[in-house]
Amino acid sequence: MTFPGKRVISAGFLLLFIVFQAPCQNLEAEFYAGPTLSIPLGPVVDGDLPLFSLGGGMALRGDISPSSLPLFFLSPALDADYMPLNGAGSAMTMIAPGLSLGIRYEAAPRLVFKAFGGGGLYYGMSEPGNVSNPFIAGGGEIDLKLNPSLSLGLGGRYRLMTTPSGSLYEGISLNLGVGMDLRAKRKTRGMEVFPLLNPIFPLFFTYYDDNPAGTVTVRNGESLRYDNVTVSFHANQYMDGYKVSGTVKSLRPGEEISLPVYALFNDSIFRVTEGTKVAGDFLVTYEVLGKEFSQSFPVTVEINNRNAMTWDDDRKAASFVTAKDPAVLGFSKNTVSLIRSDYAPPISENFRTALALFQTMSVYGIGYAVDPATPFTAYSSDQRAVDFLQFPNQTLSYKAGDCDDISVLYAALLEAVGIPAAFITTPGHIFIAFDMGITPEQAERFFDLDRDVILHEDRIWMPVEITLVKSGFLDAWRRGAQEWNEAVRAEAQGIYPVQEAWRTYEPVGFVEAGMMGQYPAGEKITQSYNSEIGDIYDYINGPRIARIHAACKERGLSEVETLNRVAVYYAQMGMLDKAEGEFGKILRKERHVPSLVNLANIKYIREDYETALILYKEASALKPNNGKILFRTIDLLYNQSRYDEAESYLALLRQEDPELATTVLARYGGGTDATRASDGSVISLDDWEEDE
């Protein structure tokens, strides 16, 4: 098949023109032009004479790459070659437009390897006549970037120009070309940065070190690839240096990437008492063809006041719980010192301390007052609304706060003395729970687990409606339990232990505050505490004692056995005076062994060891096979250096309980170097005798 050469040439130039003038921003295009050297390999005539000798010409080529597939390129080309005919004194001129598909590999910023293959139609013109047929070609090239717009290419390829009966030409072409990046000649926007910063909350200034303060989008508006792109952020006055947002290995022309913005603020940001705006900037460093560049892009940073917070994550309130604040530590530790006891506290140490702190807040004058500007009920339902929370020392200074403010204060006081606190959230409200420090089994002795307390992750928490600080602990506890149970039924409850929340939202070191009020007189605190704990005991004890009587009646226990169980309950609650009186009443009726032991335990706790020993010995005489009674008797005898008597009781213990006797020997080393081991804390909730 043949056709006029002008049409072939026109079609080839038209294809190149369309490719290189098309204004397509999603394509990368380079244009190459240069001389070629053609080395024929065939065909041969007259046995071994090649049809053609060395020739040469000019090659025009374009490489087009879509931005989405940068490794591949499409290459339209137009070759013009002058090929002398061996022994004929004439030559053939060949015009060959074609199209190839290739792949590239960038070994270095300036060095690119290419491989391609394709074909097209050639048109050969000579004195004997003209010919036109398909051809195939394939080869490779090495490009060296001289500058952003120019490159030098050295390549070679194999070409086979076919005829219906075989081939017209087969050979290798070497070419040296100069390339021009057409996009580099266009007007570009260079590096582009589009920041989207969130308002900064000083309260969480350490949080932003590992969590985003916004995002920044970086776009390559150049015609060349950017390598090792690093984006950093800085805010004037409040950051000591740039904080890296991220590093991108490469960014091709037209490509963009979004990165999280991190910031390491210094503590001066915590002096922001009113919302403000400061200047900042993004620093972008990158490489182009192995050369480093950097650009700075200004940005405005909005900073909220230091008391600002949003309720998109309820755990954020933990940042306000400044348990190490000197004002908080002084308030809480003074309170704890007033209600110390040598005996294990009623219910638990945590319960007793939490009760005392609550009552001290009430005596001190802390009151609940809704903030008209930022009421929690409204602001907690809008995750974008900026609320104003007080720090504990501010609430101690103002003596008033919203439910969130007083909750933060109570949580800080609890944590300051080692009692784990948790925020409880229900729709439109927040209050506090504290870890009771007892097991669920122990809690069942005093509470209805489904009504009175919260069982969360195998820990017993007591809810406290902090807004009732003026009404007393009992009312606050009962209301808190009611609100929790209502929220559970509505599946709208939340519990967030402060110490767990601190892992994400660290407490800040805020110590500035106004004038703190006078700490209450100790007698007022103890009076309030004793009055409230009496009411609590009445509330807890009534149903419990009724259940004890019912259970004893069902089991057919005697009146004395029933009274003993009631007295034991009082002892377990820490009501030692009442328990001692009840045991005394029983013993005036009969010498009931469990009551003797229990009364001896109370004397033991109060360090009246002489009376305790008399009672233990009497109980042991009435019931000589009770190992626990023998152990207590031996303990007191050893600690009074009455070794002979102790040895006689130890002989009885060896008969009744050899294992416990071994424990005694290990404890006292045979009796000659005994030390005072008697301690009221040895008596636990399980050390009271209930049955014969």
Description:
The chain has 692 residues and is α+β, with helices and mostly antiparallel strands. It has 4 domains: 5-185, Porin (Beta Barrel), CATH 2.40.160.20; 190-303, Immunoglobulins (Immunoglobulin-like); 314-520, C8orf32 fold; 525-682, Serine Threonine Protein Phosphatase 5, Tetratricopeptide repeat (Alpha Horseshoe), CATH 1.25.40.10. The chain is 32% helix and 32% strand. Strands 1-4-5-6-7-8-9-10 form an 8-stranded antiparallel β-barrel. A 5-stranded antiparallel sheet has the order 24-25-23-22-26. The chain has a 4-stranded antiparallel sheet with strand order 14-13-16-17, with no helix packed on it. A hairpin with a 2-residue loop joins strand 9 and strand 10. Helix 11 (559-572) runs antiparallel to helix 12. Residues 1-6, 19-25 and 671-682 have low confidence and may be disordered.
Please give a handful of descriptors for the protein shown.
692 residues, alpha+beta, Porin, Immunoglobulin-like, C8orf32 fold, 4 domains, eight-stranded antiparallel barrel, five-stranded antiparallel beta sheet, 32% helix, 32% strand
Please provide a brief summary of the model.
The chain is of the alpha+beta class and 692 residues long. Helix 15 (627-639) packs antiparallel against helix 16.
Q: How are the secondary structure elements laid out?
A:
Elements: H1 5-21, E1 27-42, E2 44-45, E3 49-50, E4 55-66, E5 72-84, E6 91-108, E7 111-125, E8 130-145, E9 150-163, E10 166-181, E11 190-197, E12 214-221, E13 226-235, E14 243-251, E15 256-260, E16 276-288, E17 291-303, E18 308-309, H2 326-338, H3 349-364, E19 367-368, H4 376-379, E20 387-388, H5 392-398, E21 400-401, H6 403-416, E22 421-426, E23 429-435, H7 440-443, E24 454-456, E25 459-464, H8 473-489, E26 494-497, H9 498-502, H10 522-555, H11 559-572, H12 576-589, H13 593-605, H14 609-622, H15 627-639, H16 643-656, H17 658-668
Parallel strand pairs: 19-21
Antiparallel strand pairs: 1-4, 1-10, 2-3, 4-5, 5-6, 6-7, 7-8, 8-9, 9-10, 11-12, 12-15, 13-14, 13-16, 16-17, 18-20, 22-23, 22-26, 23-25, 24-25
